[in-house]
What does this fold into?
Amino acid sequence: MQVNENLMKILLSNKFYYPRGGAEVYVINLESLLREHGHEVAVFSMQHPQNLPSVYEKYFPKEVDFTCINLRNLFTYILRPLGSKEVRDKFSCFVDEFCPDVVHLNNTHSQLSPVIVEIAHKKGIKIVWTLHDYKLLCPRYDCLCRGKTICEKCFTDKKQVIKNRCMKDSLMASAIAYCEAVKWTRQRLEKYTDTFICPSRFMYNKMTQGGFDTQKLHALCNFVDVGKTKGAAYSGKEDYYCYIGRLSHEKGIETLLNAASQLPYKLKIVGDGPLRKDLEKRSSKQIEFAGYRQWTEIKEIVGEARFIVVPSEWYENNPLSIIESLCLGTPVLGANIGGILEMIEEGKNGMLFESRNVEDLRDKIQKMFTLNFDYKSIAEAAQQQYSGENHYKELIKIYNKQ
It folds into this structure.
């Protein structure tokens, strides 16, 4: 169907509606971007105490916390990923009131479920889906077997998630993930969705590898509010490097600390996560844990760093941490995995190292301190490439695609 660009009503959907991670930041920024261009926007999410205020909150289904699955509430945790009555009823009423031209999904599995795609499609609404992880290919979402090693077996055999107990090392959680994958198959989701947006070419290629129709795939990188990145002191770099992000295994933070502990350079770590306490106990004196910080503080820390390190050990898609760093004129030393390779030009805006390789990371950190980068040029190029306006122009084409 053809959408009237000038009078568009867009319903964004994501399971969380607060700045929890990259997907949520994207949705919140997109909501603002679309409204700035005069479109009417609503958000469908799950109830959560940290949610942003919404006039449509009455339509949000109750919060479900999948970190504490047990036999007492097992029925609820099975039904929600498959499409519970509460989600179906509330989303249907929401759509009937708001009457959107486009439903733009983001992370919706489990807490909301893809049942909303089916409902919107049957009501004749265009469906666009931005893929922030690999959930449509991997029941665990990150292509990591038990959270440790890269694995693509579930691309063709979803039973592997049960066989390897990939979800929380739990048979119960893995069985629920398997049931969800069997219910929402590639064929079913492909039937209901008009366009899948892949923020990286890597994601695009993996979706193709997983059997998705290339006619329904569109590569479009993420964006940031470049206005908030301007004004950085490009010549004011200090003598330290930093890490920004979640402190968890898949992010490669342990590999980074093993390399950093062998070097004399100061490392600032910004972020929190399940590994923080253990890492703090084992870290050396040149490593500083700054904890969770607001953007104004992050801007200063990253903007004044010689470079940031993104040591990921999973298939990163199109990390906002890299985009923000480059827009601040700060080079990136990134692992050669996933979509990271597409974002770094060796010697121009950063370097790459072999993911999981402590020695290579250590050597590249040393080399990064010897290189001279044109920080202002890095910022200008990134601000152009990742601007909201560029993203908006391409997104409108997707919304209007026949």
Observations:
- The longest strand covers residues 9-13.
- The mean pLDDT is 94.
